[in-house]
Amino acid sequence: MSDPAFERRPFPVAAGWKKALSLGLTGTLVLLLLLTAPVSAQIPFSALRFLKPDGQISPALLTECSGLVHSLRYNGVFWAHGDGGSGASIVPVTASGKLARGWTGAVRVEGCKNNDWEDIALDDKGNLIIADVGNNSGRRKQLMLHFVSEPKPGAVSVRPTRTLRVHYEDQKGDSPDYDCEAVFSAGGQIYFLTKHRSDKRTRLYRLDGESTTRSNPLRLVGSFDVGGMVTAADASPDGKLVAVLTYTTLWVFSYDRASGSIFTKSESVRRTPIFAWQAEAVAWEGKDALVIANENGQLFRVALSSLQAAR
Question: Which of 60, 96, 97, 163 is 20–30 Å from 173 (CA)?
Fold first, then answer.
């Protein structure tokens, strides 16, 4: 798919360096990220939104936050999880990062190993989908989705109702462009967005099949220039919008049920440049706001109304 005709706004390098130096290490890191983006995605440094934390997940509850989704069953509760090596558990937290009322701590997911959990989503039946799909080197062949019912208050463990093995149908060899940190469900389908190292694009794949005895193919739907590495995605409660997060931009696309894509309605794409250190997770909070989590468990709220049309 072709990208929207974004206006070309060259990065003001001289002014940017001066501003970056005045902001110290944080500003310098942001500038380096922006200078590596393609022209179509470059934005003025002055337009970057340095997000202020609204909450913090305690390291005692979760280390290296990697996924976040708002509960469909319990109002004000978000399910979060850690990256590979942090244990096979999910944590119920509030938007301020505190442990949700009714639970005593993390909920262990029995019978699973956290090889590289990268995102968590909810399907249209209310099941949590834990995406064990991290593939930094592009060599991993055993990608998995674990489906679990939302744990009730007081639960200390939960067991998946099923696990699906998945693979990219068009992958012919090892490639880091087949890494994935973003999984969402919309229109009764499950989608994956790739995280690239060779360019600033992402590819959208749809799961085709639900066999529990063989690997299910992920079929290519389209691609888009997001100007960076995709680290998370989430569909709105009504399934009409999909938020896509990179390290420097929050995007919102319209889901087109007819085509099964989020890249066909370019006139409705919205975005805002953000900086939240290493932003790793995004979740809708109702229909009007989004919550972003960074690797250190800091939580940031962004109003949907603050995003601008991407032209």
Answer: 163
